[in-house]
Fold:
Amino acid sequence: MHLEDLAELAEQYRALDAGVTHEVRVCVAAACQSTGSVPVLEALTQANTDECCKVKGVGCMGLCSAGPMVALAPKDGGIPESVLYREVKPEDAEDVLASIGGPPVERLHCPTDQPFFTRQMRIVREHSGIIDPDSCKGYIAVGGYAALIKALTEMTPADVLREMTASGLRGRGGGGYPTGLKWSTIAKMPPGQKYVICNGDEGDPGAFMDRAVLESDPHRVLEGMAIAAYAVGASKAYIYVRAEYPLAVERLTTAIRKAKRAGFIGNKIADTQFNFEVEIRLGAGAFVCGEETALMASIEGLRGQPRPRPPYPAEAGLWGCPTLINNVETFANIAPIIRNGGAWFAGIGTEKSKGTKVFALAGSINHIGLIEVPMGISLREIIEDIGAGCPGGKAFKAVQTGGPSGGCIPAEHLDIEVDYDSLKRLGTMMGSGGMIVMDETCDMVDVARYFMEFCMSESCGKCTPCRTGTQQMHELLDRIARSQGTAADLELLEGLCEVVQATSLCGLGQSAPNPVLSTLRYFRAEYERKLQDSR
Structure:
C-alpha cells in the first residue's frame, strides 16, 4: 500500500456518506456516559428519519461538566462550526433533530463562541468529538494512518528521527525529556529485540487526559506507536492501561483488532519488511506503576516496584532489551508531526516547550473538562478565560499542577507562562496535565495533607525514605492541620521533606514533598496560624 492507495481508500469511505449533509454527534466518552449519553444516542437514532442526517457516537468534546453533549454539525465541520447542546436528555431527541438548519433549542444551547472553545488549539484532540472512536474506516477517512504509510514508504528510520528531533517534542508524561533524543538513543542500540511501551497508567488525582484520548481516538495512539517502532527498530509493543479505564480498554481492543484487519498492524505492513504487533496489559491501579521501571516490572508479571537507574530502559528495559516508553499524549502527537513536518510543530509554543498541551481542569472552576492549548499560554488565560473562573464568584486562591508530584501555584503568579521551565521555577511541574483549581475557601494545609496521604498510601514500600518518610510527614501534617502541632513539628516537617526528596529511589518519593514545600513557600502563614492556635 502506498499513500495514493490509502488516499483512494479514504475517498471510498467518505463516499459511503455521500448523501449526508449533517451529523448529530453524541459524546460517548466516559464523562458523558456517566450522565446518560448512551440512552440519548439511542433516542436520537430511533427518532431520526432524515436520510441526509447521520446520528453517531463520538469521543470527548471537552466540556465534561456539561454532559451529555450533542453537536449538530455540517458533515465535515468541527466543533466551532457546530451547534452544541449540553445536558441533553432522551426526551429532547425530537427537539434536537427538529432544530437542524433552524434556530437552536435555547434551553439546551451551549455557545461555541466562548473562550473555552475559541482559545484552544487542537492537535492531539483534532478528531475528538468528531469521529466514531470504534470506526477504523472513520479514522482513515479523516487522514488516519497516512503518516504511518508515509514513514514506511517514503522515509527511512533516520528521516523519522530527524523530524522528531526537529519538532522539539518533549515527553508529555511529566518528565519533559526530549522525544527525539530518547528515540535516537534506542535506535543506536545494537540490532535485536526492542520494545515500545505506551504508558496509559494515568494515576494523578484529577487527571483524565490520557483516558479521554484513548476513549476518543485510539487509532491515533496506535499509529504513533507504529511510527515509533519503525524509527527505533522495534516490532513488539505494549499498551499499559489501568483496569479502572474499562471503556478505554474496550475501545483499544476494538481498534487493535480493526487495525490488524486493515493491515496497519501485523507482518509486512504496506508491503514493506516492517512487522508490528501490539498487546494490552492491564494495571491494577498502583500509582507507582506510572514510573517506567515499575511499569516494566508489572508487564513482566512481577510486583510493580521501581529499580535503580542506570541502566536506563533505553539500554536494558523490558526483559533486559532496549525499550522505548512514552505516554499516550506523546504518541498522539506523532502522526501530525510526520504528516506536517517537525518545523511545523516547532513553530508552536515557546523556545524550549514546543507544541500544545492537553490539560484536565478540575476542582473549583466553572468549566470542568479537557482543554488543549499552545505551550506558553498564561495561567490566567487558562483559569479565568478558558475555565471561566471559580463558581459562585469566589476568588481564585491556588492551582495544583503535576498531581502529587507537583505543587500549588498562588494567585500572585497567575500571569506565569505555562511551560516546563517556568513551572519548575515556581516549585511545581507540568506533570501529565492535571490542574486542580482551589478557591479562597480552601485550606492549604489540608491540601498538603491530602496529597501526602495519597503518596503514603501509594508508596510501594521498597525504599525506607519513601515508605516511612511519607508516613511521618503525614502524621506531622495531620497534627498541624488539627491545630495540635508545634514549631518543632514544622521544623521537623521541612527537614523530612529534604531527606525524602534527596534519598528516595524513584520519582514518587522524590517528588512526594513537592505539595508540602510549595504550600510552605507560598502559604506559610496558614501553617503558622495553626501553630498559633495550638499554643
Remarks:
- Residues 427 and 518 are 6 Å apart (CA to CA).
- The mean pLDDT is 93.
- The two ends are 77 Å apart (CA to CA).
- The chain is about 45% helix and 15% strand.
